[in-house]
Amino acid sequence: MSKEILIVLGSPNSATGELGVIAKERLNFCLTIYKKEMLILCTGSWGAHFNTSSRPHAFYTKNYLIEKGIPEDRFLELALSKNTVDDAVKIKNIVSTFENIHLTIISSDYHLVRVKLIFKEILKNYKMKFIGVKTNFKTEEYNALVKHEKEAAESIIKNGLYY
Questions:
Q1: Which residue(s) pair with 52 in the sheet?
Q2: Which one-letter DSSP state was computed for residue 107?
Q3: DSSP structural state of residue 71
Q4: Do strands 39-42 and 101-108 pair parallel, antiparallel, or not at all (unpaired)?
Q5: Residues pairing with 139 in the sheet
Q6: How far is 97 from 16, CA to CA, in rounded Å?
Q7: 137: Cβ–Cβ under 8 A, 6 or more apart, which residues?
Q8: Any idea what DSSP says for residue 74?
């Protein structure tokens, strides 16, 4: 029987460490599918565009899940990554010691195309399932995110990945 690892990709938090809407959407979804035999891996460190606080983003997401009732011993090492490509690279390093695992990658709906492009390349030897959590933003804000992701995915397709 394979071991399932839930991977929650990072997103912005405030300078004081308060998680943003996107992070909470992803984390709350993780809570709905979590079962006691699963492991959890949280990603995210620092970056001007998503976390300028004193602690890595993954620290806040892990603590959020612990506060909601997930035992601390269910968490793997934090993937202190700076972007989606770095997520996949750091995740690969962490999970490489496990055998017979299945990865469930939790991101947002608008981000999923790019996540799949990256993870299917870097983590191609792993069984993976991708979940795009619905983002509840106003149309204009949501469309800006979709546009950014489309451009980023097109760049990967055109230029390949650098890692």
A1: none
A2: E
A3: -
A4: unpaired
A5: none
A6: 34
A7: 21, 145
A8: G
CA dihedral 46, 47, 52, 55 (to 10 degrees): 0
Residue 126 CB coordination number (10 Å): 18
Q: What is the pTM of this model?
A: 0.95
**Residue 65: in which H helix or E strand, if any?**
helix 57-67
Please give the pLDDT value at position 1.
73
Closest CA to 24 of 16, 36, 33, 12: 12
Which residues lie across from 105 on neighbouring strands?
7, 130
Looking at residue 143, the DSSP 8-state letter turns out to be H
Give residue for tokens 């750091």.
Answer: 90
The answer to whether 105 and 115 are in contact (CB under 8 A) is yes
Q: How many CB atoms lie within 10 A of CB 75?
A: 17
Locate tokens 């006691």: which residue? 36
Are the C-beta atoms of residues 51 and 57 closer than 8 Å to each other?
yes
d(CA 62, CA 24): 11
In the predicted model, residues of the chain with pLDDT beneath 70 are none
